[in-house]
Amino acid sequence: MNTEVGEHDPTNAYQSLSETTAQDDPRWAFGSGFEDVEAEIAAPVPAGVDPADLAAYCLMLGDDALVYSHRLSEWVSHAPELEEEVALANIALDLLGQARVLLARAGHVEGAGRDEDALAYFRDQWRFRNVALAEPSDERDFGRCVARLLLFSTWRLALLQRLRGSADPVLAAVAGKGVKELAYHRDYAARWTLRLGDGTPESHRRMQAGLDGVWPFVGELFRTSAEERRLLEPGVAVDPAQAREEFDTVLDQVLGAATLTRPDRPAMGPLGGRAGRQGVHTEALGHVLEQMQGLARRHPGATW
Q1: Contact 191, 149 (CB under 8 A)
Q2: % of the chain beyond a pLDDT of 70
Q3: Would the pLDDT of 19 be above 60?
Q4: pLDDT, position 26
Q5: Which of 92, 95, 114, 295 could cross-link to 72 by cystine, CB 3.0-4.6 Å?
Q6: Averaged pLDDT for residues 59-88
Q7: Residue 18 pLDDT more than 90?
């Protein structure tokens, strides 16, 4: 590549990430499209909404994206091809951008003086509100990685499509940009599902095994938390159960074309009526947080 120094090359991802101007927010990972991020994050809480419920809901959606983006980033240097490493890293960055805005909104609304970094790095495991689907390792099995990405992106896209009309301006803005990102995530996963499922006998076997392995996490995606129920009437949240029909329709189309079978496996049940939305997690989340939070906790307040 013979790009002159100072010349902008739109095909160079690394140059795009490193460039800033006086008008740019250097925190490029926000990815919100806001002209004034801080002003939008500080938007008033919609009338009739309990700030604690709004903060909890933002944490739910933000933690889903944060934890899963970390798991996807583990594929860098381990994916089957360099092109797939870049694709998975870009998907992880999209989710990280969504997470940063949502966690920043939660921190502002709860009024505890915590920003997105404090919420990401200094919360204990039981304070996270993500679904269990985001937590386990793919164990370097690309079939399992593709299966989980297909389920996660299909579900989250259906949610964000409905959240574009949220009464909360931050949720609506994240959803407005997020649907474009997640449409690509779902398409990427669907194309690989077709390629593996309708490929060789071995690729079909491994893709089906990956799907079987993550299927027990699906049931939790469509349970409605108490905070979500209270936010329905003021038009802030959407009922995840409303996304089930779209999720099933998309999955049936993709799995049928890929000659794969919808797993007949029981859902992973809640523990005493509590699951990820209530802070009850699998052992895998502890391993994620140990990696993600380790440096910040060893050197609190450090900058670089």
Answers
A1: no
A2: 87
A3: no
A4: 38
A5: 92
A6: 96
A7: no
pTM above 0.90, yes or no: no
271, β-bridge pairs: 274
Q: What is the rounded average pLDDT of the residues 1-30?
A: 41
Residue with tokens 């899963």: 68
Q: Which amino acid is at 172?
A: A
